[in-house]
């Protein structure tokens, strides 16, 4: 069966994302559409879409007449993005605790249960995909379209790093536990508690942030330049 272009583009994006975060593709490396299409035996259309997704996540820069180039990010920028993400998701969780309908709460609980099943399987990519469904269900449950769009856009920029985090030993287990605590607060309608727990789930500070930065290729995360 022929794959849908969007699905194929997603697969290419994940593949290239992994090569960038592993250091196989370093900052400054050029990604040529024609060469990538030949390498993966696909047309240039899904390649182009995958590159746009990577650009949205700030993993590459799309430059006029130069094409796509692997981007660098500073430690300060990465920390700032996670700080903003934690606050946005905390607001979503707080509003969701007050506004989610019974049907939406059931969807959130079902997604959490699927995450639990996938955690047992050890399939990081499958867990990440369902984890994304969990968070998107919560965004929608806030019933604030402007906030939902802003949070989704910020999450897309951080998606590669959040996916990378799940490969750290024990992270999936902790993620699942944190999900359970958020679901419990939302089920009880505890707005402030739900926000606090979601903020803690997304925030990466101290040893957690140090572990993430140390696991990324040295050439990828750099000190802030003048």
TrEMBL record:
Task: List UniProt keywords, sorted A-Z.
Answer: DNA-binding, Transcription, Transcription regulation
What are this entry's molecular-function GO terms?
A: DNA binding; DNA-binding transcription factor activity
Q: Does the keyword Chaperone apply?
A: no
What the entry lists under SUPFAM superfamilies is as follows: GntR ligand-binding domain-like, Winged helix' DNA-binding domain
Q: Does the keyword Transcription regulation apply?
A: yes
Annotated HTH gntR-type domain ranges read 6-73
The identity of this protein, by name, is: GntR family transcriptional regulator
Tell me the superkingdom of the source: Bacteria
Q: Which InterPro entries is this protein grouped with?
A: GntR_C, TF_FadR/GntR_C, Tscrpt_reg_HTH_GntR, WH-like_DNA-bd_sf, WH_DNA-bd_sf
């Amino acid at each position: 069966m022929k794959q849908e272009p969007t699905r194929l583009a997603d697969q290419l994006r994940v593949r290239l994302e992994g090569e960038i975060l592993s250091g196989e593709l370093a900052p400054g490396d050029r990604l040529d559409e024609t060469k990538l299409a030949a390498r993966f035996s696909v047309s240039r259309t899904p390649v182009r879409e995958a590159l746009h997704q990577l650009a949205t996540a700030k993993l590459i820069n799309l430059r006029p007449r130069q094409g796509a180039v692997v981007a660098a990010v500073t430690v300060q920028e990465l920390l700032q993005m996670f700080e903003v993400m934690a606050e946005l998701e905390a607001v979503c969780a707080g509003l969701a605790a007050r506004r989610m309908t019974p049907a939406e709460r059931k969807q959130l609980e079902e997604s959490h249960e699927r995450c639990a099943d996938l955690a047992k399987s050890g399939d990081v990519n499958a867990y990440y995909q369902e984890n994304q469904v969990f968070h998107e269900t919560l965004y929608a449950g806030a019933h604030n379209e402007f906030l939902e769009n802003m949070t989704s856009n910020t999450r897309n920029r951080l998606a590669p790093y959040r996916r990378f985090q799940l490969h750290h030993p024990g992270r999936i287990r902790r993620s699942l536990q944190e999900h359970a605590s958020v679901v419990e607060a939302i089920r009880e309608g505890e707005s402030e508690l739900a926000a606090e727990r979601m903020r803690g789930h997304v925030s990466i500070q101290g040893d957690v942030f140090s572990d993430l930065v140390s696991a990324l290729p040295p050439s990828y995360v750099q000190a802030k330049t003048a």
